[in-house]
Specification:
The complex is a heterodimer. Chain A is mainly alpha-helical. Chain A is built from 23 helices and 7 strands. Chain A has helices spanning about 5-20, 25-50, 95-110, 120-140, 145-150, 155-165, 170-195, 200-205, 220-230, 245-250, 275-290, 295-305, 305-330, 335-340, 340-360, 365-385, 390-420, 430-435, 435-450, 455-475, 480-505, 525-545, 545-580; strands at about 65-75, 80-90, 240, 265-270, 270, 430, 510. Classes of the chains: A mainly alpha, B mainly alpha.
Chain lengths: ~575, ~500
């Protein structure tokens, strides 16, 4: 068993421990340790990405690679049988792109944090903890482990916004914390429902002595256990209930009389309980994505957070929401995914349009970009709801590409804020005259974000829209007009970016009089180049050679859509038949 | 005459046979008397010895109960007290709570500075824990009443330890008035039960069989009356009104004890009491009692969590936090048909460490830095990062966030509720589950207030004061189990399970 995934998760934690024992006055060394931790994580992520075999799923393997699986917590609860929590990590095509993104952005974030002045030790300690928990989220295949990392993410974030943030930081921090905690509580309710209903066929086979303890059970044994389970032939005390997400994905692992079994026929407010569970889980991750109308924490958090934390928030934390939908919500409840596809696609499109309209109305450049994030994450939902291979590929591509581009956008805002301590659009005119290099990068970031061909954003939007259009024929999930409406989002994006560009950068140089005293208008320095150039190159690279990502992702996505569609239709008809 | 004589011998024999099972209680009683006697001497050397004697007593009872073996399985003492695994585990928790209380008291400035009454303070701690042990063992309604009164009387006196402070008098008076009222109501309810069944032995089959024959309305009324007394002890609504005042007036170690000891004992009494309700065969007959308990749990959860939001002092905040935890425990008790006892005991164990940790932190802040109101905490955590981080751990564990044991406790309780809902499809259980989980969001809002002030606000300049090493070590002692029981809860769960199944 290789330990590559554990090293990926815990490298920053190790660095954090080193930082913890260092005295706080050693500011430079602390920064260097943090940078080394992030660089090491990035190195591992890149190595993993190149070594990851994108065609594995097609060869009939399970799809998860570099798997690490250890028994962690097992206990028996009387007549409910045994409970099992595993330390279960693995990558597949869906997570490998997010791992790479986290590695890259993690390093950019450290470089961007170089100018932090206040309490360096505490800052980098929390920063590294955040990197560990995000990476853990993307690699965990056990729901409990996932939830642990998912919840633990909130804490460093809360302090990073609340201590190092802008003037209204305290309000923004608490709003962020409560909002996302409520989201994870929805997830917790469903998690409890799931693990009490799902058995691990492998461990149950051991319990039933069908296979020798510790030996892997073959496919026939697994099928036999599942058949026995569905025939009520396994006594409750012999069942091993599990948090394992792959086990939850198979309907045959659900205990027959449990509430979340497809045939339980259990309803609440005239909705099958599985649908309610789906909606709760969806809502939990939608807050994180964030989806309109539960997005209101995002602009506050973004505006108040220091630049590197904004970068991290936009580039990787939001992705955890989208990733959770793909990793957990859709495969575990494919019936709900099929039943509510129009609702989800509709919310996605609504986010695209609403976010773009809000962005158009903002005077604060950072808020504008925050709303553009909301708008772009709407594409992820649209692509996912279509359940076509193009659409889901597009959703993942969008998450990856938005990770690179939004990092760039927030860095660009940080550059001007560092110099003028203000970022209201109307306070600037003609910056291009004074800061030509800076303006170049702003233009690149803006155009990449609005989907100019040649940048990664274009590929993502194209795939999502193609998926959306074909969905009505191919999968029957979405009506065509929804995607037509989404196209207007592109138009609006062009409008708000170009308008902002025109107002701030073109024309004769002018600065709002009150700002002139403190402002030091200089062009980019070396550190800023170091952050912006790689990001711009990466956006370009993945815009010109999409196969770099699609080769790794494609086959996993094909498997994902097939599974969700197939199981979705089957289970949906079972659920509906058990009720009516 | 002969008959009387035979009866007497029989009784004496029963007492002698059963006495062995009461070894922990006998030891506590012995040390109580010893402390009271030694307190009569004026010698300073002896006075200094008293806390350590009390500590010895608690350590001895803790060890005896962990090792076990002093009693054969399931001995009943005169149909009054039963020493089973449940009582043994509860006894371990009580002894631990006693030890922690003394450790906190030794660190407490105000208690140390007091001229007189040292001995009686520690003596009454012993008496209180003795009462708790008896509560956990009682299987007879009258015995329950006596045990609860023993605890109450000790509590009243301990509340008034610092009687020079104005708050203490107010707290003590409120406590006694509410205590007397709820005791009266409980006794009234017990008399109903006796009238309905002709027996006080509430765990026996006859008792419940007679109740099934009786009018359901009468049974419900009697049960509600009896629960008044239990609810008072665990500070559940609507008998929670004394809690904030007492928490404000009593010395900090005593508050920490009140927030754990009587709550644990009360929960154990309720555990025994509702055991018969949980029998699925009787479910329909006792539906009203379950409904009442469910409503009480919901009310307690709502009152505890929502009132806590408005509190301005740390002590009152913790009072409402303690009420909300009573609500969670009550909710957990209703998961009939599942192994809820294990989960509840796990939750209680975690609660013990969390609460003592928080109260030690508050004691340090109050004694050395005169911090009372929440806003006074501003900048404290920045000046003393170690203490601040420890406080953060305790508050997050109280909220129920991973990676801390408070999360595990809640996860277990809620898992039981879900399972019970699957069995009975009772909407009340689902309501408890959903309300309980969502209130965690509210809980975060008030628990995070103190860390918020600790780290986000102001700058604490008063750096001359040093926090003693023993305080720091104690904080770590309370924090360690929270991490251990999150990452390896099976260590504790298997042990509880073993105790519950073998000694029954």
């Amino acid at each position: 068993m290789s330990l590559i995934l554990s090293s990926l998760v815990f490298t920053p934690l190790l660095a954090a421990l080193v930082v913890l024992v260092m005295p706080g006055r050693l500011q430079k060394p602390i920064k260097v340790v943090a940078l080394l931790g992030a660089l090491l994580q990035m190195g591992l992520a890149v190595w993993l990405y190149t070594r990851f075999d994108g065609s594995a799923f097609a060869n009939g393997q399970t799809g998860y690679q570099f798997v690490e699986k250890l028994r962690w917590i097992t206990f028996s609860l009387g007549n409910l049988g045994n409970f099992q929590i595993e330390y279960f990590l693995g990558v597949d095509g869906i997570s490998v792109s997010m791992v790479l993104l986290t590695g890259l952005v993690g390093v950019i974030g450290v470089i961007s944090s170089w100018t932090i002045k206040k309490n360096i030790k505490g800052y980098f300690l929390l920063y590294l903890l955040l990197l560990t928990s995000v990476m853990g989220c993307f690699l965990a295949l056990d729901f409990f482990l996932f939830y642990l990392f998912f919840e633990f993410m909130l804490l460093p974030m809360y302090f990073l916004i609340g201590i190092w943030g802008g003037p209204k930081r305290e309000y923004a921090a608490i709003k962020f914390f409560i909002y996302t905690l409520v989201g994870s509580l929805f997830i917790l309710i469903v998690m409890i429902g799931l693990y009490t209903s799902v058995i691990d066929p492998q461990a149950t086979a051991w319990q039933l002595k069908l296979v020798q303890d510790g030996m892997p059970a073959g496919t026939e044994i697994i099928l036999q256990v599942q058949q026995m389970l569905q025939d009520n032939a396994i006594h409750a005390t012999d069942m091993v209930r599990t948090f394992s997400i792959p086990a939850m994905m198979e309907a045959d692992n659900f205990v027959p009389d449990s509430l979340l079994h497809t045939l339980s026929g259990h309803q609440l407010w005239n909705l099958p309980l599985r649908f309610i569970a789906f909606l709760l889980l969806f809502a939990g991750f939608a807050i994180k994505v964030p989806l309109v109308p539960v997005h209101t924490w995002l602009p506050d958090a973004h505006v108040e957070a220091p630049t590197p934390i904004s970068v991290l928030l936009a580039a990787i934390l939001l992705k955890v929401g989208g990733y959770g939908l793909i990793r957990i919500v859709y495969p575990v409840f494919p019936d709900g995914a099929a039943y509510f596809s129009v609702l989800i696609g509709g919310l996605g499109v609504f986010s695209i349009i609403y976010g773009a309209l809000c962005a158009l109305a903002m005077n604060d450049l950072k808020k504008l970009i925050a709303y553009s994030s909301v708008s772009h994450m709407g594409f992820v939902l649209l692509g996912l709801a279509s359940l076509t291979t193009e659409g889901v590929n597009g959703a993942i591509y969008m998450m990856f590409s938005h990770g690179l581009i939004s990092a760039m956008l927030f860095l660009v805002v940080g550059v001007i804020y560092d110099r003028v301590h203000n970022r209201m659009i109307q306070n600037f005119r003609g910056l291009a005259n004074k800061m030509p290099a800076y303006t170049t990068f702003v233009v690149i970031a803006f155009f990449a974000s609005l989907g100019l061909p040649g940048f990664s954003g274009f590929i993502a939007e194209l795939l999502v829209l193609v998926g959306g259009f074909s969905a009505s024929d191919a999968t029957g999930m979405l009506p065509r007009w929804l995607t037509v409406v989404a196209v207007f989002g592109l138009l609006l994006a062009a409008a708000y970016y170009l308008w902002a560009l025109q107002r701030m950068f073109f024309g004769k140089f002018w600065l709002f009089p009150d700002l002139r005293e403190k402002a030091v208008i200089t062009d980019l320095n070396a550190r800023e180049y170091l952050m912006l150039v790689p990001l711009a190159l990466l956006a370009l690279l993945f815009g010109i050679f999409p196969h770099l990502l699609l080769d790794k992702v494609g086959i996993a996505v094909a498997g994902f859509t097939e599974l969700v569609l197939q199981n979705g239709q089957d289970q949906l008809s079972l659920i509906l038949s058990s009720i009516f | 005459m002969n008959e009387q004589g035979a009866f007497l011998t029989q009784s004496i024999n029963a007492i002698l046979e059963g006495a062995g099972s009461l070894l922990p209680e006998l030891m506590l009683a012995f040390f109580f008397l010893l402390l009271v006697t030694l307190d009569l001497f004026r010698s300073q050397a002896i006075k200094k010895l008293l806390p350590w004697l009390a500590l010895t007593a608690f350590f001895a009872t803790l060890l005896i109960q962990i090792l076990g073996g002093y009693t054969s399985e399931s001995v009943q003492f005169l149909n009054l007290l039963r020493s089973d695994g449940l009582a043994r585990y509860a006894g371990i928790l009580f002894s631990a709570a006693g030890i922690f209380t003394i450790l906190l008291s030794l660190q407490n400035k105000q208690l140390e500075e007091r001229q007189q009454g040292q001995g009686e303070y520690y003596a009454f701690l012993l008496m209180l824990v003795l009462g708790l042990n008896l509560m956990a063992k009682s299987i007879n309604l009258l015995m329950v009443f006596l045990a609860i009164e023993t605890v109450s009387i000790a509590s009243y006196i301990l509340t008034l330890t610092l009687k020079e402070k104005g708050r203490a008098i107010e707290a003590g008076l409120k406590y006694i008035l509410y205590g007397a009222l709820s005791a009266g109501i409980m006794l009234y309810g017990m008399s109903f039960f006796y009238g309905l069944t002709g027996s006080l032995n509430y765990t026996s089959g006859d008792f419940w069989f007679s109740l099934l024959q009786a009018s359901p309305l009468m049974v419900t009324v009697a049960a509600i009356l009896v629960f008044a007394g239990f609810f008072f002890k665990i500070s559940a609504a609507p008998f929670h009104f004394w809690t904030p005042d007492v928490y404000q007036g009593a010395p900090m170690p005593v508050v920490a004890l009140f927030s754990t000891g009587p709550k644990m004992a009360g929960i154990v009494v309720i555990l025994r009491f509702v055991a018969a309700f949980s029998d699925p065969a009787n479910a329909t007959a006792f539906a009203d009692v379950q409904l009442f308990l469910g409503i009480a749990a919901l009310a307690t959860l709502f009152i505890g969590n929502f009132t806590a939001i408005w509190q301005q002092t740390a002590r009152r905040l913790m009072a409402y936090s303690s009420i909300s935890h009573a609500g969670f425990l009550l909710a957990g008790l209703l998961a009939f048909g599942t192994s809820y006892t294990t989960s509840i005991l796990f939750y209680l164990t975690v609660l013990l460490f969390m609460n003592f940790g928080v109260f030690l932190f508050m004691q340090v802040a109050e004694d050395h830095f005169r911090i009372k109101r929440l806003a006074d905490f501003a900048g404290f955590g920045r000046a003393y990062p170690y203490v601040g981080v420890m406080a953060l751990l305790f508050f997050l564990s109280l909220t129920g966030l991973p990676p801390l044991a408070g999360f595990m406790g809640k996860l277990l309780v809620f898992s039981n509720l879900w399972e019970a809902y699957g069995l009975s499809q009772d909407k009340m259980l689902l309501a408890l589950l959903v309300v309980g989980i969502l209130l965690t969001g509210v809980a975060l809002f008030y628990y995070i207030k103190i860390p918020f002030y600790l780290f986000f606000k102001g700058n604490y300049t008063d750096k001359n004061l040093v926090i003693s090493l023993s305080d720091k070590l104690l904080l770590a002692l309370f924090a360690m189990p929270l991490l251990v029981f999150f990452f390896k809860p099976d260590l504790l769960l298997t042990w509880i399970e073993k105790l519950l199944t073998t000694v029954r």
